[in-house]
């Protein structure tokens, strides 16, 4: 089925992502009701986009199938969406998320130790200190922008601390990440010039960060510490060491994946709790019992990552629909998380929802989010402190959404305590 029927939304058009959230949710509900995945053509942009198109996987079961069958649904050449230019990995290396097993599994093992529950427990003290600083700032200011004052502060300090990046360099790192992620999700023929300009800015930001990490990596090779960066530069993969290019792309991924997502989940969390005072009171009355399910529900409802893509390694039938080898599919997590076939009252925010088999952290499979437990700890600590110390913290106006088809982001969010 092609996307040319008048009733179908065009997921490749930036205008679709600029539409109000309610319109987008309705469009995805319609796509879910169709008996097969819809194909969307993507324009080829010389040097920037390979083009072609993709089938949109919008049902929960389809996202699960594509996440599980990694031998059929490959993350190479790229899982990120829109697909980066084919020359990008040759220059900057291929990040873990765009890699298949067995190399993916070996690399993932190196960093996964840093995300093991015992290591994360040790990080709780640091997370509590960062949260304490944030809540004190919100209390002192009384009103302002929640993204600037709270949401963007939490993950950058946590991930930089794990990577062993000194505090005084974190402002620089964050500014580069902000530029890098501007490119994500921008798409469409009409935006070709804007895209080229953004891509140039993006490349400059990657180069700046690369210089920074190479310097830091050399220093850690000489004098390793107890951080992920030291683990990476001293690691042995397939009998070889990581090249500085591979180290750089790993570093970019951890910084980007660990920042935007938590930042946006925190902001959406405040919106949801402000819009649902009953659920907020329920959570505040018993955070020990409900914080875990509340965080899962925030991630389900807001789905901070909109989409990832896969490329078929061979012909495959999905729900009886043939997908040829070489074709692409895009997994729409937010749509799967509202699938009425899986979730009762999917549009209702329920802090005690159980079961909640959402795919906000990706579907079960080799690429399931490496930082999911860390994200849960950060968000849990933040909302616990907010409910305990700032019982009247609320949004004070509408959120300014990020125009992107990749990050379900919030650029600014007025608050008042
Ligand atoms: C609410 C917060 C988060 C959300 C919603 C989220 C979402 C996701 C999703 C959907 C994927 C799946 C990619 C795929 O299947 O192709 C993923 C992978 C990944 N995430 Fe997260 N993430 C979050 C937080 C974090 C944090 C805090 C970190 C690290 C500090 C992190 C690091 C990663 C990495 C390294 C991968 C790639 C794993 C692989 O390819 O094996 N994420 N994340």
Explain what this protein looks like in three dimensions.
The structure is a single chain. Helices cover 51% and strands 11% of the residues. The chain is of the alpha+beta class and 417 residues long. The protein has one domain (14-416): Orthogonal Bundle (Cytochrome p450). A five-stranded mixed beta sheet has the order 1-2-10-7-3. Helix 10 crosses helix 11, helix 12 (244-275) crosses helix 14 (287-302) and helix 12 runs parallel beside helix 16 (372-389). The model has no long low-confidence stretch (mean pLDDT 89). The protein binds protoporphyrin IX containing FE. Protoporphyrin IX containing FE is lined by residues 67, 75, 79, 96-97, 108, 159, 253-254, 257-258, 261-262, 265, 299, 304-305, 308, 333, 360-362, 367, 369-371, 374-375. Belongs to the cytochrome P450 family.
Produce a short descriptive summary:
Helix content is 51%, strand content 11%.
What are its keywords?
417 residues; alpha+beta; Cytochrome p450; five-stranded mixed β-sheet; three-stranded antiparallel β-sheet; 14 strands; 51% helix; 11% strand; globular; binds protoporphyrin IX containing FE
CATH architecture: Orthogonal Bundle
Sequence of strands across the biggest β-sheet? 1-2-10-7-3
Order of helices and strands: HHEEHEHHHEHHHHHEEHHHEEEEHHEEEE
- How big a fraction of the residues is strand? 5-15%
Which range best describes the helical content: under 10%, 10-25%, 25-40%, 40-55%, 55-70% or over 70%?
40-55%
| Radius of gyration, in angstroms, nearest whole number | 21 Å
CATH C-level name? Mainly Alpha
Q: What is the assigned CATH homologous superfamily?
A: Cytochrome P450
């Amino acid at each position: 089925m092609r996307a040319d029927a008048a009733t179908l939304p065009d997921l490749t058009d930036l205008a679709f992502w600029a539409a109000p959230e309610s319109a987008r949710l309705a469009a995805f509900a319609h796509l879910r009701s169709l008996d097969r995945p819809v194909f969307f053509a993507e324009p080829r942009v010389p040097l920037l986009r390979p083009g072609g198109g993709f089938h949109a996987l919008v049902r929960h079961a389809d996202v699960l199938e594509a996440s599980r069958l990694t031998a059929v649904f490959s993350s190479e050449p790229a899982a990120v969406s829109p697909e980066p230019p084919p020359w990008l990995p040759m220059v900057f290396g291929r990040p873990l998320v765009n890699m298949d097993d067995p190399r993916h599994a070996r690399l993932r093992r190196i960093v996964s130790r840093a995300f093991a529950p015992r290591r994360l427990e040790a990080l709780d003290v640091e997370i509590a200190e960062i949260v304490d600083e944030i809540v004190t700032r919100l209390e002192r200011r009384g009103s302002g922008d929640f993204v600037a004052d709270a949401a963007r502060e939490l993950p950058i300090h946590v991930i930089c601390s794990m990577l062993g990046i000194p505090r005084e360099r974190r402002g620089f790192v964050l500014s580069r990440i902000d530029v890098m992620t501007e490119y994500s999700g921008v798409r469409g023929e009409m935006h070709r010039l804007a895209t080229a300009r953004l891509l140039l800015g993006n490349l400059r930001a990657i180069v700046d960060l690369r210089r920074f990490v190479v310097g830091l990596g050399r220093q850690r090779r000489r004098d390793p510490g107890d951080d992920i960066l030291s683990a990476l530069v001293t690691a042995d993969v397939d009998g070889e060491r990581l090249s500085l290019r591979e180290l750089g792309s790993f570093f970019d991924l951890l910084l980007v994946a660990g920042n935007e997502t938590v930042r946006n989940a925190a902001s959406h969390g405040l919106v949801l709790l402000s819009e649902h005072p009953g659920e907020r009171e329920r959570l505040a009355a018993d955070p020990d019992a409900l914080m875990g399910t509340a965080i899962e529900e925030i991630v389900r409802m807001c789905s901070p990552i909109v989409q990832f893509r896969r490329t078929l390694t061979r012909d495959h039938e999905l729900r009886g629909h043939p997908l040829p080898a070489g074709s692409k599919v895009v997994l729409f997590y937010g749509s799967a998380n509202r699938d009425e076939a899986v979730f009762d009252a999917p549009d209702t925010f329920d802090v005690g929802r159980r079961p909640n088999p959402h795919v906000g952290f990706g579907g079960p499979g080799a690429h399931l989010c490496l930082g999911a437990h860390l994200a849960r700890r950060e968000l849990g600590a933040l909302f616990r402190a907010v409910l305990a110390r700032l019982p009247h913290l609320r949004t004070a106006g509408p959120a300014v959404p990020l125009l992107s088809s990749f990050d379900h982001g919030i650029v600014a969010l007025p608050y008042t305590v």
